[in-house]
Amino acid sequence: MRAYIGGRQAVSETDFLELALGTPVELWLGVEGESAEERAARLDAARDILADHPGMPDDLIRIAAGLVETHPELFDVVHLPRPARRRTARKGMAA
User: What are phi and psi of 7, to 5 degrees?
Assistant: First the structure.
């Protein structure tokens, strides 16, 4: 099955995110080992984008909700059994 966002094919999770955001994922999440100066520049660019597109967060939530609705198999969650809690008996009372 092929998935398209805005006429472009999304092959990986990163493709879905980049096509939905319209920007590279690294702009929002950062990259490992970035310097303080690089981080400040990245955050400044992200603020500029949000200032130019104030509805972007709402649009992204709408896109994500649509993706979950149309492709629930991408979000299959396996529930793991919770281990039983063990309580240790107290041998005395605190003074």
Answer: 80, 0
Name the amino acid, one letter, at 56. Answer: M
Distance of alpha carbon 58 from alpha carbon 65, whole angstroms: 11
Q: How far is CA 54 from the centre of its chain?
A: 19
Tokens standing for residue 80 = 């793991």
Q: How far is 89 from 86, CA to CA, in rounded Å?
A: 10
Interval 45-81: pLDDT, tens? 989 988 988 888 888 788 778 877 887 777 776 777 7
**Is the pTM higher than 0.70?**
no
Integer angstrom CA distances of residue 94 from 61, 88, 89, 91: 52, 15, 13, 10
Question: What are the E-state strand segments in the chain?
Answer: 3-5, 8-10
The kind and range of the H/E element at 25 are helix 25-29
- 16: nearest Cα among 71, 88, 57: 71
